[in-house]
Amino acid sequence: MAEAIDIRELNERIERQSAFVTNLMTGMDQVIVGQKHLVESLLIGLLSDGHILLEGVPGLAKTLAIKTLASLIDAKYSRVQFTPDLLPADVLGTMIYSQKDERFVTNKGPIFANFVLADEINRAPAKVQSALLEAMQERQVTLGKETFPLPSPFLVMATQNPIEQEGTYPLPEAQVDRFMLKVLIDYPKLEEEKKIIRQNISGEKIEVRPILKSEDILEARKVVRQVYLDEKIEQYIADIVFATRYPEQYDLKELKNLIGFGCSPRASINLALAARSYAFIKRRGYVIPEDVRAVAHDVLRHRIGLTYEAEATNVTSDEIVSKILNKVEVP
């Protein structure tokens, strides 16, 4: 009985402390038409302290979404447009010799911001990609002999364009694994498209004012860590991830020849973190199986390696995740 009371008390506390989510969503809705899933994914990344990889054709408000989020939170935003001739120093910064002081001074790059948009990340050569990914993982940058911590919160949202192959460098599997979520963005619905046209031809600029401080996000993260995750849910998450590695143990023999390699333990960790954040966004103090299912595709799709057979028969990792979710027993 004590546990039940604890959960009720936790639920009430989380409902109070997650009130800002509604304000953030409303603020995003004023600027971005539709794209609910994109907005939710950004919030999950922000609350879980994870980075996001977005894939979608140009013009689907990927840049606008992160810019709006940064404006709603009083935080520093920077954008790096990736090109084949970009150098690591263009992202991280460099040491510049000052004649006046007769010494080298640090010139910090655009990575020193709370929200960094890495636009078209697959356009930059491997050297730049790895420099960015090191900063994402270690939350610090070394320039010369000095190491500088990156600000907190620190969220990288990288975009990639799936339709162009010329002049692009696909991200290797090990690097893609560093992103907590890979979100696919689709075209808006017909009604939304009409609203987008109306908004853009009216000529009115919607002014976005900050409603939160960076500290509020750091506080919210502490609360998200208190969201209750039952052992049965833990088991469910572990089963889903294990089914990507050993499908035959879960009566999914047909997937064995389609999966080149399964998900790493990073997938399990991120699935648990994302499910917690999703429960928080839905203003609940505990995780239910539906929360895990809601985030599973975004967390797992870039962590499953497909075989040539899967590619030849046009099987996608999304279809594999769906089959696993349909088969693994829900607690």
CATH superfamily of the largest domain: P-loop containing nucleotide triphosphate hydrolases
Structural class: alpha/beta
Approximately how much beta-strand content do the residues carry? 15-25%
| C-alpha Rg (nearest Å) | 21 Å
Total separate domains: 2
Q: What's the overall geometry?
A: globular
Instruction: Give the termini distance in whole angstroms.
Output: 21 Å
Report the CATH topology name of the largest domain.
Rossmann fold
Structure description:
It is a single chain. The chain is α/β, with parallel strands linked by helices. The protein folds into two domains: 28-215, P-loop containing nucleotide triphosphate hydrolases (Rossmann fold, 3-Layer(aba) Sandwich); 228-327, Helicase, Ruva Protein, domain 3, CATH 1.10.8. Helix content is 48%, strand content 16%. The chain has 14 helices and 13 strands. It has helices spanning 2-17, 19-31, 36-48, 62-72, 88-92, 126-138, 173-176, 190-201, 214-224, 231-245, 265-281, 289-300, 308-312, 317-327, and strands at 52-55, 73-74, 77-81, 93-98, 103-108, 115-119, 140-143, 146-149, 155-160, 181-184, 212-213, 259-261, 305-306. The strands form five sheets. A five-stranded parallel sheet has the order 3-6-9-1-10. Strand 7 and strand 8 (146-149) form a beta hairpin. The mean pLDDT is 86.
